[in-house]
Amino acid sequence: xxxxxxIISGVLEAVWATALGRSEGFTxxxxxxxxxxxxxxSMGGLAYxxxxxxxxxxxxxxxxxxxxxxxxxxxxxxxxxxxxxKILLILGIVGCVIGLKMVDAAAH
Length: 108
Hints:
With about 110 residues, the protein is mainly alpha-helical. It has helices spanning about 1-20, 30-50, 55-75, 85-105. It is a multi-pass membrane protein.
């Protein structure tokens, strides 16, 4: 269960990061609301997952998921330029996240 919550929390990190950018310094109401709710749920899920997953592993996976999805979303919908290098680097982050999960599973 902790892994499922951690993955959902990583997705929510991408949600709040994107909403933060769209809030324009908290001057736009709905992006600010989405940011606030997403942040609370994301952090709460991370804290829950850390009860069973080591802190370093949980945090790295949470950040990796959130960062990868934030960049991917920005390239698809936000006008951020895409390139083969960026895509390969995102795939590298995803590979590291999978590797951390596998190492944690092997340790238990």
